[in-house]
């Protein structure tokens, strides 16, 4: 079934979310150019911040956001391991084709319980930050998928864009990649802070200042 897509709310009736982000980036680059005579420090700070964010922070956040449900389920099982599925029902006598059934909804992925007790490594590893990023990304992906299905109908795994195309195997996220993403985000933030601090130190102390003769 198809439905209607709700219009995106706009500021002043003309600015949607993309327009506001574009305007903010434009002003962030225009104002320093108008106020600063020497653009060297501006370019240096922009390069240190932009390079760190685009090269390390953004890829890690995107990966955690896209695979947010899988990351949250992995962390939830790591904090509170799930026991074997309860209430298993054996097949009836004489029915060789019957299989064991369970009332456990294994298709629903778990999330860490905010009110539950946390292990000692929860805060030292900045796990609340990673859970927040994954939760925000997972909620956003679910909302967009729901809106897409409402507009275009249910997504079938056998739906192919080309009649002659062959189905391909889907590769899920890897636990190792979760930790690599967290390392990338941490390293990128650290690099951005160190780059910004070094640029400020150089400008304040005139490290590369050459007196005129």
Short description:
This protein is an all-alpha fold and 213 residues long. Helices cover 54% and strands 0% of the residues.
Whole-number radius of gyration? 25 Å
| Biggest pleated sheet | none
Order of helices and strands: HHHHH
Give the DSSP E fraction (strand runs of 2 or more residues). under 5%
Give the helix level as a range of percent. Answer: 40-55%
Structural class from helices and strands?
mainly alpha
How many beta strands in the DSSP annotation?
0
| End-to-end separation | 78 Å
Envelope shape:
flat
Number of helices: 5
What is the averaged pLDDT score?
78
Low-confidence stretches: 99-107
Question: What does this molecule look like?
Answer:
The protein is mainly alpha-helical. Helices cover 54% and strands 0% of the residues. Helix 2 packs across helix 4 and helix 3 (68-79) packs across helix 4 (127-152). Residues 99-107 have low confidence and may be disordered.
Keyword list:
single chain; 213 residues; mainly alpha; 54% helix
Describe the SSE topology:
Blueprint: H1 17-35, H2 40-66, H3 68-79, H4 127-152, H5 175-205
Helix pairs in contact: 2-4, 2-5, 3-4
């Amino acid at each position: 079934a198809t439905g209607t897509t709700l219009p995106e709310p706009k500021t002043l009736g003309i600015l949607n979310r993309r327009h506001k982000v574009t305007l903010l980036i434009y002003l962030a680059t225009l104002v320093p150019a108008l106020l600063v005579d020497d653009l060297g420090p501006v370019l240096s700070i922009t390069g240190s911040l932009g390079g760190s964010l685009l090269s390390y922070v953004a890829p890690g956040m995107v990966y955690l956001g896209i695979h947010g449900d899988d990351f949250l389920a992995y962390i939830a099982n790591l904090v509170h391991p799930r026991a074997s599925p309860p209430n298993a029902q054996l097949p009836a006598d004489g029915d060789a084709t019957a299989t064991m059934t369970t009332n456990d909804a294994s298709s629903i992925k778990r999330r860490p319980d905010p009110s539950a007790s946390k292990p000692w490594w929860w805060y030292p590893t900045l796990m609340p930050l990673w859970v927040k990023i994954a939760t925000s990304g997972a909620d956003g992906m679910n909302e967009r998928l729901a809106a897409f299905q409402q507009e275009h109908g249910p997504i079938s795994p056998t739906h192919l864009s080309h009649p002659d195309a062959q189905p391909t195997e889907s590769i899920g996220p890897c636990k190792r990649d979760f930790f690599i993403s967290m390392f990338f985000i941490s390293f990128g933030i650290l690099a951005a802070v160190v780059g910004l601090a070094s640029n400020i130190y150089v400008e304040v102390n005139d490290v590369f200042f050459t007196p005129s003769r």
